[in-house]
Write a structure and sequence with these properties.
Protein name (chain B): Putative branched-chain amino acid permease (Azaleucine resistance)
Number of helices of chain A: 5
Shape of chain A: flat
Low-confidence stretches of chain A: none
Low-confidence stretches of chain B: 1-12, 247-257
Number of domains of chain A: 2
Oligomer: heterodimer
Order of helices and strands of chain B: HHHHHHHHHHHHH
Mean pLDDT of chain B: 86
Membrane topology (chain B): Multi-pass membrane protein
Distance between the termini of chain A: 43 Å
Strand order of the largest sheet of chain A: 1-2
Number of strands of chain B: 0
Strand content of chain A: under 5%
Largest interface: A-B, 72 and 96 residues
Subcellular location (chain B): Cell membrane
Number of domains of chain B: 2
Mean pLDDT of chain A: 92
Shape of chain B: globular
InterPro entries (chain B): Brnchd-chn_aa_trnsp_permease (IPR011606)
Structural class of chain B: mainly alpha
Radius of gyration of chain A: 22 Å
Number of helices of chain B: 13
Largest sheet of chain B: none
Family (chain B): Belongs to the AzlC family.
Helix content of chain A: over 70%
Largest sheet of chain A: 2 strands, antiparallel
Order of helices and strands of chain A: HHHEEHH
Distance between the termini of chain B: 39 Å
Chain lengths: ~120, ~260
């Protein structure tokens, strides 16, 4: 695309469209909330939602690389993740978990690069 | 995270609006640390993809949804049409609908002028701290101020990190290849572990993890939704037949009706 006007227009459509799509999803239930009553069983089931969504985001990030399972010590993300689980269990401190988990990941990645 | 201070001093901790606001801003801090590299890499990748600096800043300011911003930038780089990008964003962000459903009982009494900003700021991170605050046993009427405080802190930092990625990111070669985005994964791990205190919760999380691998090839990150629903069903299915959820966290009490 060489036409600068068309380029700006495309960017406006992308950003504006994404903003509207995202806000619609986030606002839909809030906007209707005063008119709806959710069944207690559904609300009780939704207690599982936060940990379950976060797990479903993290597990593929840690274990998959280009769609294949990486279950070995060569996977620095796995080493970092296991470290994070242990640190979190022991310390119950989120910030410490992030810092030590990242340090383990970066350290292990560096080590693998040196060894190879 | 919040280290659940509410558990130690439950009934008598009645905080005012501003105390709730600042407590939210403080409690989301670790999550901001975890999101920082993500935001910086986003800024770097966006510029690399050919998106202009102003469009990148506007995307962070108006969309404010990290994973969909990442995916959008990847699609811009491959010259995908804008409508496909918008539709993909819609599907990728569907999990926010589930978050909103969980928050409905807590926010439904609020006026519109609250619902609009709280919805706009509804990210993974804001949801994580807000739902914990709402589920805490004390009944202060100002918990939405806690949600707002955390959400605004997250928002402002996301803008700063995007700007950093656009400017300083260009100075760091291959910033995206260092794997700094892994900070997001360790943050989420640190958020999941405290939940694993009951058998159904463990079953739910393990199921979601397994299904997320199997369902990963589904397009538009739909595997995420499938895994989440499978996890919830598995958790509900494992619950004891007479659940006294409120009480059973401390001690098991059996009622024979």
């Amino acid at each position: 695309m060489t036409n600068p006007f068309a380029e700006v227009l495309t960017e406006i459509l992308i950003v504006g469209g994404m903003a509207i799509a995202t806000f619609t999803i986030r606002y839909l239930m809030f906007g209707a909330s005063s008119r709806i009553t959710l069944p207690p069983r559904l609300l009780s089931a939704l207690r599982y939602l936060p940990p379950v969504v976060l797990t479903a985001i993290v597990v593929p990030e840690v274990l998959l690389s280009d769609g294949t399972l990486q279950l070995s010590y060569l996977n620095a993300r796995l080493v970092g993740a296991i470290t994070a689980v242990i640190v979190c269990k022991l310390s119950q401190n989120l910030l410490l978990t992030i810092l030590v988990g990242m340090a383990a990941f970066l350290g292990w990645q560096g080590l693998l690069t040196v060894v190879n | 995270m919040s280290q659940t201070p509410t558990r130690k001093e439950p009934e008598n901790r009645l905080m005012g609006r501003s105390a709730e606001f600042w407590a939210g801003a403080r409690d989301i801090f670790p999550l901001i640390v975890g999101a920082a590299p993500f935001g910086i890499i986003f800024g770097t990748l966006a510029i690399g993809s050919g998106l202009s600096a102003s469009a990148t800043l506007f995307m962070s300011a108006l969309v404010f949804a990290g994973s969909s911003q990442f995916i959008a930038v990847g699609m811009v780089a491959t010259h995908t049409g804008w409508l496909v990008i918008v539709l993909t964003t819609f599907v990728v962000n569907l999990r926010h609908l589930l978050y909103a459903v969980s928050l409905v009982p807590y926010i439904q009494a609020l006026p519109q002028r609250w619902k609009v900003p709280l919805a706009f700021f509804l990210t993974d991170e804001a949801f994580a701290i807000a739902i914990r605050r709402y589920e805490a046993s004390d009944c202060t009427p100002f918990k939405h101020w806690y949600y707002l405080g955390g959400a605004i802190a997250m928002y402002l930092n996301w803008q700063v990190f995007t700007l950093l990625g656009i400017t300083a990111g260009a100075l760091i070669p291959n910033a995206a290849e260092w794997g700094l985005d892994f900070a997001m994964s360790v943050t989420f791990i640190g958020m999941v572990i405290p939940y694993l205190k009951s058998r159904p919760m463990v079953v739910a999380v393990v199921t979601a993890g397994l299904v997320s691998i199997v369902a990963n090839p589904l397009p538009h990150k739909l595997g995420l939704i499938v895994a989440a629903i499978a996890g919830i069903i598995a958790g509900v299915y494992t619950e004891p037949p007479l659940p006294n959820q409120r009480i059973s966290q401390q001690r098991s009490v059996f009622h024979h009706d």
